[in-house]
Design goal:
The chain is α/β, with parallel strands linked by helices. Strands 6-5-4-7-8-11-10 form a 7-stranded mixed beta sheet, sandwiched between helices. Strands 1-2-3-9 form a 4-stranded antiparallel beta sheet. Helix 4 links the parallel strand 5 and strand 6. Helix 9 runs antiparallel to helix 10. Bound molecules: zinc ion.
Amino acid sequence: MEPKSLCIGCDTPGKKVNNIILFDVVNSSTYLCENCGLVWRSPLPSPQQIIDYYHHQYSRYSDRIQRKIASQQSTWLEENIKKLKLGNNFLFIEFGAGRGWLVKEMQNKAGIMKAVGIEPDEAAVNWGKESLGLSMDCGFVDSFNLPTEHYNSHQKIVAFSHVLEHLSDPLGALNKIKAGFHEHILFLEVPDGSLEGPVISLPESSLGEHFWSYTQKSLILFLEKNGYKILTSRTTGKKSYWQKYFMDQKFLAIQDEILKQIYSKKSIGKMEFFQYGKLFLSLLNNFLLTLGLKFFPPSRLDLPSIQILACYKNS
Ligand SMILES: [Zn+2]
């Protein structure tokens, strides 16, 4: 018998929703927690398989988009540092910093004394250092040696932006941060699983890079379970971002319905006439949406996401 896969947010056994081959190498399944909405894969690739995969797969959005995302995130952070009276002279440390756009934005914000980025991709680290003049280091969160003596002399904000959903061991990463930085503010941004979860649960899901799809509820439960106090949280983005993933399925369902009606009726009565009309309008609507998505594809800026600020104090 397969071992039960438990939700990391609320410990509920997951319901299997599909099978998927992760990174072309691991036969895995997708699970849903019917209590808190977390969607996750199990089993996951080994750390080495993950390193091998990302070695060839680094993709990034354009500088313009990255800068815009970083600007929105840093504005939200700065507002909350003020509003929640979190303090001054923060050291901002981002893990999975990419080329360092958020680090760059944060180093100019009120309350931030210094900002550094940690990133496994050496080329991105060098680019951030040379082109943006940033303080950056190479490393993964689980293998990085946190230079805690220096870092521990300041208040810290530790950031993970669109990283937690890619980690094979998010709990391990959190424990490492907690052990290294006894007191800190945590900033997380992840895709909003209440909208992404149904997409990665589709039978033919190809979005294998996300091992976890967190809902706001599941993320809060996960953090609280691990000693964090939630300071604030919000969702951003547009629902329509995921529309294209459901279009084909919807289209096929409508087509099926029409065929079923045609084959089951000898003659068309008044009621059927209205039903056909309704189906035709759905088809037209679908067609126009498809056309719209083709010419105006959703922007990464619209990706529905969850932002969360939490604090940790080792007592
Ligand atoms: Zn759960």
